[in-house]
Structure formats: C-alpha cells, structure tokens
Design brief:
Number of helices: 15
Bound molecules: adenosine-5'-triphosphate, magnesium ion
Oligomer: single chain
Helix content: 40-55%
Strand order of the largest sheet: 1-2-3
C-alpha cells in the first residue's frame, strides 16, 4: 500500500483558518474535499481505521458523523479496519458495565449498516496485545503539556462520571494513535471531536519516523476525513453522545424516535431557519432531516416556514424513521444469530493480531529492541 498522500495548496491555505476554529474543523473540511478526489481516483492507496467505544448502541451522530463514510469507503474499495475500543470505556468510569453486550451490539450495528466482514476487519483492541504494546514507545514521544491541552479530553473530563481524572483519560489519545498506526491506516473518518486526537497521531508518527526511521517512514501520517455532519447535536442541544442520554439510536423503535425528537430542545422563534451559529438546536434538527432526505437543510427549512417547532419535529421524526427502516430491519435479522456476531469478532481479532505482530516487529527492529 502506498501511504503517501500528497498535500495540496488548498489544504495548506485552509490550514490558516481563523483562531476561533479551535479544533481545526475548516482546515479538516477543506482537506477532506481533496481526499475525496484522491479516493475516487485511487481507493487502493488508502487504509482506513475508525472505531467506537462499547458504551452503548450507536446513534445518528455516529451514523452521519462517521459510519456512513465507513461503508461508503468500503464500497469504493478502500480497506477498512473498525476498532471496538474496549479499554477506552474506562477513561470516564470505574467499571465497564455490560461490556460483552455492548460489544455485540456494536457488531450488530456495523453489520446492519453494511460493514462487510469478508472485506473489512472488526476487532476489539483489548484482544490485540501487540497493538497495546505500541502505547509505551508512543507515550515517550509526547509531552504532558501536549496531553493537557487537548480540548476534547477537557470536554470529556467535564462530562466524566468520575470525581478524579485517571491517567487513562489523559493518555487515551496516545492509545488511539496505537489503534490507528498498528495497521498503518492513512485515513480516519471521524467526527469533529476526534480532530485533536488525529493531530496527535500525526505528531507521534512523525516523531517516531524522525527518531527511529533512519531516513524511511515506519508510519504514515494519517488524515481525518470529516463528513458533512461532523457534530450532530443531541436532544439536549449538546453533542449527541452515547453516555449523555441525549441520543437517538439506530436501533430505537419508531415510537421511541418520535418521543425523543418530541423532547428535543428548540428555541422560541416560530419561523424555522437554518443558522447553526445562532440557532444550533433547530439547525441540527434541520440537518438531520436533510441528511435523511438527501436535501439541503435550507430546503427543509423553507418547506416548514413559519409552522414552528412542532412541524419541524414531525418532519424530523418521519424522515429519520423512513431512513432507518431498512437498517433497523437488517439489525433485527442479524440479532437472531448471536453466535455469528461472535464469529465475526473472533475472525477480526485474529486478522488484527497478525497485522499488529508484524508492525510491532518492525517497531522493535527500528528501536533496536530485538533480543
Ligand atoms: P461516548 O459518550 O461513550 O464517548 P460517543 O457517542 O461520543 O460515545 P464515541 O464512541 O466516542 O461515541 O465516538 C465514535 C465516533 O463517532 C467518533 O469518530 C466520533 O467523532 C463520532 N461521533 C460521535 N458522536 C458524534 C456526533 N454527535 N456527531 C458526529 N460524530 C460523532
Ligand atoms: Mg466519545
């Protein structure tokens, strides 16, 4: 696999986006447009790693933020690795409740949306020792102040269930670098919250190559691929999140979906308009309906006009239920065969172990630690 992905002037210019764009979203969006073109012309040069924490069922934020992109890339011929980040459950809680059940539910969600285990590798990082061993040399390549600055980690600490912040919380972006680099992925379809982590992964790859590569690149510097919904809000107006009780899951029933959307936060203005800066909650609902309908949020807003929030919610509920109907049907079907879910995972784990063993051997050779 050729992992060198050329940078372009466009991406460089976008990298100078304003100081208010703290997560670098506009630069990542511009870069994503460039990457889309490269993927279309040469999908074989890309390897993708993405994943999720097994903390609950996947939701619409995941779907439009990253899942949709994963399946699209797989269908374009890009090799796909999907990590179920079981160790990372322990970043913001003491105990990983119902872990096996959550892991199985994630596999179920992946199969339902169209991840094909014959072409793509679904694995849990806890089952891949050589991947985890990469964490030690990688930790030596970052400073404590770099870890301290990460805005996503700060936000997650604010929402954490723990009174004290664990070392795992601070260092999980380094673990994530191991998730990405063990398979030398060069493309990571993610939501906006992951951009600082991706930047750290790039830094780690660059520093490892500089320090140990002896003139050649052991690791690629992976790119983030942002979707058109890099931050979908939940029913309370903050990031839709498994752990915040504000999510509409892919597996929700038609009635649950209606109830959740009905309870979603909006504002008091009757005229419905798309303006993410001043009306974030209304705009996120419009975006959701638009993504389901394959139209623009402005068009959806124009249809609703001055009919108010109730009309907007009716449109959102109907659009989501219609869009998710085939996914929910497939989910119910795959859910009949739990043994199959476990077999998918065990095959994926085996494949991931082989890849990780090869990478660790390379790392040890580069670091002169083969005894
Ligand atoms: P948790 O609350 O347990 O952290 P989560 O809902 O934040 O769960 P993760 O497993 O942390 O989900 O994230 C998995 C992937 O989904 C990441 O790439 C993340 O960027 C993306 N993602 C999660 N929530 C959203 C969202 N609301 N909008 C867009 N992308 C999202
Ligand atoms: Mg999260």
């Amino acid at each position: 696999m050729n992992t060198a992905v050329p940078q372009t002037e466009d991406a460089g210019a976008a990298a100078c986006a304003g100081p208010t764009d703290a997560l670098g979203t506009s630069a990542a969006q511009a870069r994503s447009a460039v990457l889309e073109e490269l993927i279309r012309t040469d999908p074989g040069r890309f390897r993708v790693l993405t994943g999720d924490r097994p903390t609950g069922r996947l939701h619409l934020g995941h779907f439009f933020g990253t899942l949709h992109n994963r399946v699209r890339l797989q269908e374009l011929g890009v090799e796909l690795f999907v990590v179920i980040a079981d160790y990372q459950v322990l970043t913001d809680r003491d105990v990983a409740d119902n872990l096996l059940q959550h892991v199985e539910e994630l596999v179920l969600d992946y199969l339902a949306i169209g991840v094909d285990p014959a072409r793509s590798t679904i694995f849990t990082h806890g089952a891949v020792p050589a991947l985890n061993q990469l964490m030690l040399p990688f930790l030596s390549l970052v400073s404590v102040s770099e870890l301290n600055r990460n805005p996503t980690v700060k936000d997650e600490i604010a929402h954490s269930r723990q009174s004290a912040v664990s070392g795992l919380m601070f260092t999980y972006p380094v673990h994530q670098a191991a998730d990405i680099l063990f398979c030398k992925a060069n493309l990571v379809p993610v939501g906006q919250d992951q951009l600082p982590h991706l930047e750290l992964t790039r830094t780690i790859a660059r520093r490892f190559n500089d320090r140990y590569g002896a003139g050649s690149a052991v690791f690629p510097q992976p790119d983030a691929l942002l979707s058109s919904a890099p931050l979908l809000l939940g029913t309370d107006g903050t990031k839709m999140s498994k752990s915040r009780n504000n999510a509409i899951t892919l597996a929700a029933t038609v009635d649950e979906t209606a109830r959740l959307v009905k309870g979603a936060k909006t504002d008091s203005e009757r005229h419905i308009s798309y303006d993410p800066a001043t009306r974030p909650e209304v705009s996120s609902l419009l975006l959701l309906a638009a993504l389901c309908q394959g139209r623009s949020p402005e068009q959806v807003a124009a249809d609703i006009g001055s009919a108010g929030a109730a009309a907007l919610k009716k449109v959102v509920t109907e659009s989501v239920n219609e869009y998710l109907a085939p996914i929910r049907a497939r989910r119910a079907e795959y859910g009949q065969d739990r043994a199959h879910l476990r077999a998918v995972l065990s095959e994926g784990n085996e494949r991931a172990r082989a890849v990780a063993d090869a990478t660790l051997a390379e790392v040890r050779a580069a670091m002169n630690t083969c005894y």
